[in-house]
Specification:
By secondary structure, this protein is an alpha+beta fold. It has 8 helices and 8 strands. Among the domains are: 32 residues; 28 residues; 128 residues, Nuclear Transport Factor 2, Chain: A.
Length: 269
Amino acid sequence: MSVYCTICGTRRPEGAKYCSHCEAAFKDEAADSRTTQGPPGYGTGWFVGATVVLAAIVTGVILGGDALIARSVAAPDLTAYNQRITPDGRITYGPVEPVETPAEEWTPSPTEDETSDIPPVSTEPAESVAPSVPAVGNELITVTPEAAQDPAAADVVQLLTAYFTAINNHDYDAHQAQLTRAARAAMTRKEFTSGFRSTVDSEITLAGLSIARDGRMVAEVSFVSRQNAEDGPERQTCTRWTVGKFFEGQGTSLRIGKALSGSARYEAC
């Protein structure tokens, strides 16, 4: 019986049939062996080795896949770090901020049924609406829009209507009732009769209201008087007048006072 392995030289333990180092059969045992079967575990080493290699490959694939996924997730988008030229001429690197494009709002086209009740659009210009003017005039006296805006216009029209009606009717007492005491004293009945006996006034217009230099309210009044030649200025039978009528308060009423010098002018019509 061999004491040492003839393959690797390892000392043979007593009773051992195979080398504990290289697993070779000792010669005296190999000669007696009638089978080709090796020692326990012999011939299965390739399977174990292949299993180990396969496990290593699978582990590498798993670990490598996780690393690849991690790199894919963590890797920055290199396409966003572009080289570009700034407005002042410098070359810079950095992420390019995306430009948001507003979404186009879609509006459905109206159907034939929806458009059938829509009235046509007029191309004619809209009519301008004139501001409302208080109706303060009457059949005898016309009031301009400017004068009608004055709060005292209605009272002035009422007083002027009574005044000119008294002249056209040749009514001295009614005429005097529209005047202040000072104005009544300036005209006697005889003067009124000789001055207005043939006069008829028309086309009377209240053009404006203002405050005179003496503090009284004054109305600018224009009218046309027709009279006999002997009763008219410069023997005129038709005269166009523009006069100032001065108003004063008498108690709770408004009256016509004496006019200031130069407040009347006339021309033949």
